[in-house]
Design brief:
The complex is a heterotrimer of chains A (159), B (269) and C (265).
Chain A lengths: L2 H26 L10 E8 L10 E4 L2 E12 L4 E9 L9 E6 L6 E6 L12 E2 L1 E3 L4 H22 L1
Chain B lengths: L4 E12 L2 E12 L3 E6 L5 H8 L7 E6 L2 E2 L5 H8 L2 E4 L11 H12 L4 H14 L15 H12 L6 E5 L7 H18 L2 E6 L2 H4 L5 E6 L2 E6 L1 H5 L4 H8 L15 H5 L1 H4 L1
Parallel strand pairs in B: 3-8, 3-9, 6-7, 7-8
Antiparallel strand pairs in B: 1-2, 1-4, 4-5, 9-10
Chain C lengths: L1 H34 L2 H5 L1 H11 L4 H25 L6 H39 L2 H7 L4 H40 L3 H11 L2 H29 L4 H31 L4
Helix pairs in contact in C: 3-7, 4-5, 4-7, 5-7, 5-8, 5-9, 5-10, 7-9, 9-10
Chain lengths: 159, 269, 265
């Protein structure tokens, strides 16, 4: 095996290695659609974020338009504040509402944006006024039982 | 240089961990000579060679080699000293992943900035000296034992060393190859103006070849002199060694309890 | 009873002492290796040669294994996913398993047994045949000239191999999932792209493979350099390389996964 053959093979090796990384980054991952693109940040406050995580997707009409950049707790209003990074190519009216939704029955939680009708658009650093918190399964269940119990009580008293 | 000796060893002792190997050795290697250090396997002669090569440091005493006290050298000083030495290992120790040519060129490429065509000329010169210029492009695996030893010799003299060390250069060679190597050792020493130290137990080949001999046994020098002086030294061990007698000061039997006792006869009798 | 306990304790103590001693020796060797790595980069041709031996010659096994692992993942994943009616998530499953875990880990294990053992055997044999001593006698540091290029060659090859393994695996998943089973191609890729994050998943996978590359190659060169200069010594060292580096990969993988994928993300 002479030198230039080794050089050639190592060159090929590294080149296809870089090609594989590029394939992973562009085709498998989402490098092209985000990270380099321009974004702006908006805030949304929720009384309960459930299982929402940082980096969870922000979707509108099912299309991913951004990600949750940060989640913190506001000490004065006792609310959770989620900072959303939204791709600059997507504009939303100021009265757009943010909901915490779950993909599938037990899937990951994400934020769904529902466009409003305001003429003015959301700008970076603004806050979304209309929000809907996560559905917490325990609350749902206890509500269900409470209603059942109430129904049962009504039935008894009607007798 | 004024010093007529290329290596001087004074009252040198050496121990591996706590196992003593050399006891109060003293020897002087005169410039330009071929000197042999002979003795049985395990008498410490290879250890002595490693001390001269500064691969081991003496536990006690001093080794002055090429004007340097090996015990006081740091890494750079050690490497500078070794560039002036060549060593032939017992089985050649050729780099198996390089051709014969690259083996001989190794030190030139590592230590000099010579252009590649100058290196080529030098390598061919060295290979010619051992008669293997034609085998330059062979790999070490394709060589016979004797040829490999000659390549290793060419490699050892690649940078024209002042001191050449040989560790058992004759082991495992057929008589022809052995004769070739023996002649080369003498020839190269004289043509390079170098000094050679041969560590060996091969009496028949070595004695006619060398200028001076040290005999070692159990970590001590027990006899020294020219070949003739040593033959007539009268030391029983040397006589046994030179003539190759089975029994003598070095017993045939490894020390053991009585044979009969071992077989269980003594107690019963 | 007491005697047996004493003997057991002595054995335990000796094992711990030897283990700690070797760990310390290995760490010092590592530092020495890094300090004397200049040659490996100044004369990069030396390292190129080792990339050829460690990387290029491992290509076939890595590509074929990657393809099969991806195909198996797709088959198994489809079985499970379609029960919950979400077979479109197959791309996500294949891609995330490969990029985060299987790519670096399986490529690392294959690398350890293919290239790691070869490195150990080569250095061990060079030691046994006194080639390293000869080099030392020629005033050439064998760590700088022999060990460092092999180390860096391995460290450079490993992430490349892991990336190729993952890419090939995803291609295998695509073959089975889309071409063979008939999962919708658009959903396969788009769900994958939506779920796989470049920094969190791909970059972390690459970091893992670099760490594994360092660990495996370090173990390989150390075992070779430290091998007793005999036939049994070298063969024992080769076995130890494969065993130790496989364990190291799995243990490090756990640690790295815990650090990367649990906190906050």
């Amino acid at each position: 095996m002479n030198r230039s053959a080794i050089d050639l093979w190592v060159g090929v090796f590294v080149a296809i290695g870089l090609g594989a990384l590029l394939f992973l980054a562009l085709k498998v991952g989402n490098l092209a659609s985000f990270s380099t693109a321009q974004t702006y940040q908006v805030e949304a406050r929720f009384s309960n974020i459930g299982g929402l995580k940082v980096r969870a997707p922000v979707k509108s009409a099912g299309v991913v338009v951004g990600r949750v950049a940060q989640i913190r707790f506001d000490n004065e209003s006792y609310e959770a504040v989620a900072v959303l990074t939204v791709d600059s190519s997507y504009k939303f009216p100021r009265d757009t509402s943010a909901k915490i939704l779950t993909s599938g029955l037990l899937g990951e939680q994400y934020i769904g944006l529902e466009a409003g009708a305001d003429a003015r658009m959301l700008a970076g650093g603004e806050r979304m006024r209309i929000t809907q918190s996560a559905v917490v399964l325990e609350n749902l269940i206890s509500q269900f039982f409470f209603n059942k119990a109430a129904e049962g009580g009504d039935a008894k008293s009607a007798k | 240089m004024a010093d007529p000796h290329i290596a001087v060893i004074e009252d040198l002792s050496f121990a591996y961990d706590r196992r003593p190997v050399l006891h109060g050795i003293g020897l002087k290697i005169p410039r330009g000579k071929v000197v042999a250090v002979m003795g049985q396997s395990g008498c410490g002669k290879t250890t002595l060679l490693r001390i001269i090569a500064a691969a081991l440091m003496p536990t006690r005493g001093r080794a002055r080699v090429l004007g340097r006290d090996t015990g006081t050298l740091d890494r750079d000083g050690l490497y500078a000293l070794r560039r002036r030495m060549g060593m032939l290992f017992q089985f050649g120790a050729l780099f198996t992943d390089m051709s014969v040519f690259d083996n001989v060129a190794f030190q030139m490429r590592e230590h000099t900035n010579l252009p590649e065509d100058a290196i080529r000329d030098l390598v061919l010169l060295k290979l010619e000296a051992v008669g293997l210029r034609g085998a330059a492009q062979r790999m070490p695996g394709e060589l016979s034992g004797g040829m490999a030893r000659r390549v290793a010799l060419a490699r050892a003299i690649a940078l024209d060393p002042q001191l050449i060390l040989y560790d058992e250069p004759f082991t495992g060679l057929d008589p022809i190859a052995l004769g070739v190597i023996a002649r080369l050792v003498r020839q190269l020493n004289d043509s390079l103006g170098a000094t050679s130290i041969i560590v060996t137990h091969d009496v028949a080949e070595t004695l006619p070849l060398v200028d001076y001999v040290y005999f070692m046994a159990e970590g001590r020098v027990i006899a020294e002199g020219t070949a003739d002086q040593v033959r007539r030294s009268g030391v029983a061990f040397v006589e046994q060694f030179v003539s190759g007698a089975i029994d003598g000061p070095v017993p045939f039997h490894y020390p053991a309890a009585g044979y009969e006792a071992d077989l269980g006869f003594a107690a019963g009798a | 009873m007491l005697v047996a306990l004493r003997a057991a304790l002595i054995r335990l103590g000796a094992a711990v002492t030897v283990g700690v001693w070797r760990l310390g020796y290995g760490a010092r060797f590592f530092v020495y290796l890094i300090v004397h790595s200049g040659t490996a980069f100044r004369r990069f041709r030396l390292t190129m040669r080792e990339i050829y031996f460690a990387g290029v010659l491992s290509l076939i096994i890595i590509l074929v294994s990657g393809l099969f692992v991806g195909m198996v993942l797709a088959l198994q994943g489809y079985e499970t996913l379609q029960r919950y009616g979400s077979s479109e998530a197959l791309g996500v499953l294949v891609a995330l398993s490969l990029v985060r875990e299987l790519g670096p880990v399986v490529a690392g294990l294959l690398f350890a047994s293919r290239a790691g053992s070869a490195i150990t055997a080569e250095i061990g044999l060079m030691k046994a045949t006194e080639q390293l001593s000869a080099m030392e006698m020629m005033a050439v540091d064998p760590v700088a000239r022999v060990v460092a290029p092999r180390f860096w060659g391995g460290v450079i090859s490993m992430p490349v191999l892991a990336a190729l393994f993952s890419a090939m695996g995803i291609f295998g998943g695509y073959l089975v999932g889309v071409v063979l089973i008939g999962v919708d191609e658009g959903a396969f890729w788009s769900q994958m792209q939506a779920a796989v994050d470049v920094r969190n998943d791909i970059l972390n996978g690459v970091i893992k493979s670099v760490v594994f590359g360092v660990a495996v190659t370090l173990i390989a060169v150390f075992e070779g350099y430290d091998a007793p200069p005999t036939a049994e010594g070298v063969s024992g060292a080769t076995t130890r390389t494969v065993v130790t580096s496989s364990l190291a990969i799995l243990a490090l993988d756990f640690v790295l996964t815990a650090l990367m994928f649990t906190g906050g993300a």
